[in-house]
Automatic annotation (TrEMBL):
Organism of derivation: Pedobacter cryotolerans
Name of the protein in its database record: Diacylglyceryl transferase
GO BP, one annotated term: lipoprotein biosynthetic process
Segments traversing the membrane: 20-39, 70-89, 101-124, 186-207, 295-312, 318-337, 358-375
Pfam families in UniProt: LGT
Chloroplast keyword on record: no
Gene Ontology molecular-function annotations: phosphatidylglycerol-prolipoprotein diacylglyceryl transferase activity
Family membership: Belongs to the Lgt family.
GO CC terms: plasma membrane
Keywords recorded for this protein, A-Z: Cell membrane, Membrane, Transferase, Transmembrane, Transmembrane helix
Length: 384
């Protein structure tokens, strides 16, 4: 497998280029790009139909840079320089363990001061160029799709926090043994935690800018499914532990590739399994028994669901129905994948279930309720 981009390049071209990028992180970034594209397209379509309206905002132009602006630029410049210069001067360490370099208190003071000064100077000069003898207040129009840059940042931050919180709750025994490591680690992310917290952040931004929650939820359904599909590619290629239960059954079809039926995830980033003979480096384990490669199943299923949602979106004219259908598909897909996936189980009243099974069941039921609500209230939304 390909725990880092360097492993991938070596596999494709036979060259060894040390890069500090893990494969999972790259595909998480690509997932946000895919989601950004789908969200923007839907926002623009609904704007053109008149469903979503632009908002007016009053801003003041021509003011010089304030102390707060200069201070914030200096702060972020210092953090970037402090870490960036240290990473460049200790590149081999950065390549081998980027997470430790980024999350530790180690850094380069001179690099931090230099970029703090540069960021402050740049902000000051930009403000000076636009400064007016007398600042004035103007009204600007903000179109819904122009909010996407702000939304994606909020979704990334709160989605990551939610994914970490839900993952630590799911693996509570491991978390209490090393709570600091569990919170700061870049590995171990639960999709539903990211969906709930990141989605809530996007809804908050949308509501502040006059977009009703049901409209924003409908916009997000196809995009979230596409992003999920892309993100799961990273899970599979890096071997982050989201695989299935052992699969020793013979292939049902001879033409089916082995890696699509049962796979041992060599060089997995979870470092689970047995050592690989002759392997040198950080990721040198593979599973003792082949397992169902559930991440790649979810890549395929999620992309098919995205295509379905993308093709029916123009035919749906009731607020909330698109998101309700998304919830139903999402819940069904994840519930059945959980049947062959490795996960921690809870037991309540003698009933054993995983966190994802519980949440996916709630999502499916919520989707049914939302679709029913949309149909029941269709008379109220004739101009949707």
């Amino acid at each position: 497998m390909f725990p880092t981009v360097s492993h991938f390049l070596n596999y494709l071209f036979g060259i060894d280029v040390p890069l500090p990028f893990n494969t999972f992180g790259v595909f998480v970034a690509l997932a946000f790009v895919a989601g950004y594209w789908a969200f923007s397209k839907e926002l623009q379509r609904k704007e053109a139909l008149g469903i979503l309206k632009p908002t007016k905002r009053t801003i003041t132009i021509g003011e010089p840079a304030s102390f707060g602006e200069l201070a914030s630029n200096a702060f972020f410049g210092f953090i970037i320089g402090y870490k960036l210069i240290y990473a460049l001067l200790n590149y081999q360490l950065f390549v081998s363990d980027a997470q430790t370099v980024i999350l530790s208190f180690k850094g380069n003071i001179l690099g931090g001061l230099a970029l703090a000064a540069l960021f402050t100077y740049w902000d000051y000069k930009e403000k000076e160029k636009a400064k007016l003898p007398k600042p004035k207040t103007v009204e600007v129009t903000v179109r819904p799709h122009e909010l996407m840059s702000n939304m994606i940042v909020w979704a990334a931050v709160w989605g990551f926090l939610g994914a970490k919180i839900f993952d630590n709750l799911e693996h509570w025994d491991t978390f209490i043994q090393d709570p600091i490591g569990g919170l700061l680690s870049f590995s171990g992310l639960t999709f539903y935690g990211g969906l709930i917290c990141g989605g809530a952040a996007v809804l908050y931004i949308a509501y502040k800018n006059g977009i009703k929650p049901l409209h924003m939820l409908d916009v997000g359904g196809p995009g979230m499914m596409l992003a999920y599909s892309v993100g799961r590619i990273g899970c599979h290629l890096s071997g982050d532990g989201d695989w299935g239960i052992p699969n020793l059954n013979p292939k049902p079809f001879t033409w089916l590739p082995d890696w699509l039926w049962a796979y041992t995830y060599p060089n997995n980033v979870a470092n689970e399994g047995n050592p690989i003979a002759g392997c040198v480096g950080k990721y040198c384990n593979e599973l003792a028994q082949p397992v169902y490669p559930t991440p790649i199943y979810e890549v395929i299923l999620a992309f098919i669901i995205f295509l379905i949602l993308w093709n029916i979106r123009k035919k749906i004219n009731l607020p909330g129905m698109m998101f309700g259908i998304y919830l139903m598909f999402n819940g069904l897909e994840r519930f059945f994948i959980e049947l062959i996936r490795v996960n921690s189980k809870y037991t309540v009243a003698g009933i054993s279930f995983t966190q994802a099974e519980l949440i996916s069941s709630i999502l499916f039921i919520s989707g049914c309720i939302l679709v029913g609500y949309s149909i029941k209230n269709k008379e109220k939304h004739v101009n949707y």
